[in-house]
Hints:
Blueprint: H1 2-18, H2 23-45, H3 60-69, E1 74-75, E2 80-81, E3 89-91, E4 96-98, E5 103-105, E6 110-112, H4 117-142
Helix pairs in contact: 1-2, 1-4, 2-4
Bound molecules: zinc ion (2 copies).
Amino acid sequence: xxSIVLTSLSCFALYYTSQRLHPVYVVIGIALTLLFVAAHCFxxxxxxxxxxxxxxxxxxxxxxELVRTESPRYCVRCKVVRNAWQRTVHCSTCDLCVEEYDHxxxxxxxxxxxxxxxxxxxxxxxxxxxxxxxxxxxxxxHS
Length: 143
Ligand SMILES: [Zn+2]
Ligand SMILES: [Zn+2]
């Protein structure tokens, strides 16, 4: 949702500045917008690091034993043993365990973990650049 607002705003700013500024500014603006949209899609699509739910790996007795002895490390909902060194955390919003869990991103509606952390960094950096770039070009074209 936030991405749609930011993309529409940057398109509007690009259209506005295109009438007053050199086309190079518009090309840079389009490139930044495309990078932002691509990073957003990758962050939302890539598997954040959901461990395999191999329910056949443990017998009922073994699961009972895991719950008894390692309850903080065994996720009853996902039926997986969380690895402490992988910082696996159960996300209550997604109802999934995620390896190297960072946070649940409200903008993409996905967890940020091992798989999509780098795409998320590109998304944050490109969104900042896009906001700064559109603000600066709008100010330049107005003066
Ligand atoms: Zn879980
Ligand atoms: Zn989540």
